[in-house]
Amino acid sequence: MEKQTEQWSTRLGFILSSAGAAVGLGAIWKFPYMTGMNGGGAFFFIFILFTVLIGLPLLIAEFVIGRGAQKEAVSAYQKLTLKRSIFSFIGHWGVAGAFILMSFYSVVGGWVLIYSLMSIPGMVISDNGDYAALFDTITGNPLLTIAGLAFFVFLNSFVISNGIQNGIEKYSKILMPLLFLFFIIIVIRALTFEGAMEGVRFFLQPDFSQLNGENILYALGQAFFSLAIGISVMVTYSSYLAKNVSLTKSAASVSVMNILVSLLAGLAIFPIVFSFGLEPTEGPGLLFIVLPEAFSQMPFGELFLSLFLFLFLFAILTSSFSMLEIITSSVNERVKASRKQIAWVAGVAVFIFGIPAALSSNALADFHIFGKTAFDASDFLVSNIMLPVGCLFIALFVGFKMNRALVEQEFHAGNPFGNGMFQVWYQILRWVAPITIVIVFLYSLGIFELF
């Protein structure tokens, strides 16, 4: 049976790879449309608050678990609990969450893949300039969406089957900085449009009268989704981390990069939305409609659009690699089969499970689960149930069950902060994070109203 023996070659490689695992669709695709649908600036404010006060401590906790056990997710909890605790199920919960997340994530990945191929100079990216019609054409075609899903999953399985540590780190060091660079270019261009400041105000000026309990629930779910916490992806990633690397500084770097990408995404999207008279509540199609509009207005726009979409595609792939990795590595610890075989079988399973989500905007548009399409139901299940529950148990596990001496050892390793910082983090993990998660989660179940 194969064992995981690789390590990240540098702290920067780990940070960029972790950021790549986190950023992906969460910050670039989902954040703008969730913000647009849930109150603009007020949602962004609550999102930052949850990211810093709840998300960051939980990200450190996942890092502590992974490096403390030096095992992939399922084995990590079993090792640290000696298999005699209810908490040993957290790893299995994470693998299940990653599987469901990967299934509908790959659908959007397929859309981006199709857009990327169509954006190659010389290809036709627009339908007579009507990008909304183009998006409807792509998502409304069953064969096209299934083909996009299949090819996206194929790319993931191919990479994972050949081992991903060196590949993720190598390409993250190149692609993540380029993604930042291109985002800055888009933001600068977006702010030059007439009426852009109206979009900036919508995004950055909180109007708390627009905020309700449902918005708060979505903001918490978005914080978890965008940091890739709650399904133990970061447990697996940190298991490859050297002992002399500061977990707190690394987690802070990942969180700051995530907030920064979310900020850039908002500044790139909303000025254009308001300038072109589009609705900020456009929904999942916001990025696919607005970005082509922006690029069509700038010199060499066709080339820039193509480059950005391919960078976006690679960022999404880097993020999805982490999901398939947690599935593959956990199975690889327990099944007498090669990593290649496991990766391809896992890919086939993800593809099959993702078909209903892929058909949600066409052949299965009228099929609903609890009033939601298969795509939306999968998204809601992971973002608003599985991630919060996973985060709750991770907080309780590190705060009350995991050996405190080991927790302190991992927290302080390579860390310039003193014991005071540890105490603050530890108490947040033990009390603030669980109570906040429970309150918001009970609201989501309709037990009571926040306000």
TrEMBL record:
It is found in: Membrane. GO terms for cellular component: membrane. InterPro entries: Na/ntran_symport, SNS_sf, YocR/YhdH-like. It is a multi-pass membrane protein. Keywords: Membrane, Symport, Transmembrane, Transmembrane helix, Transport. Its main location: membrane. PANTHER family: TRANSPORTER. This is Transporter.
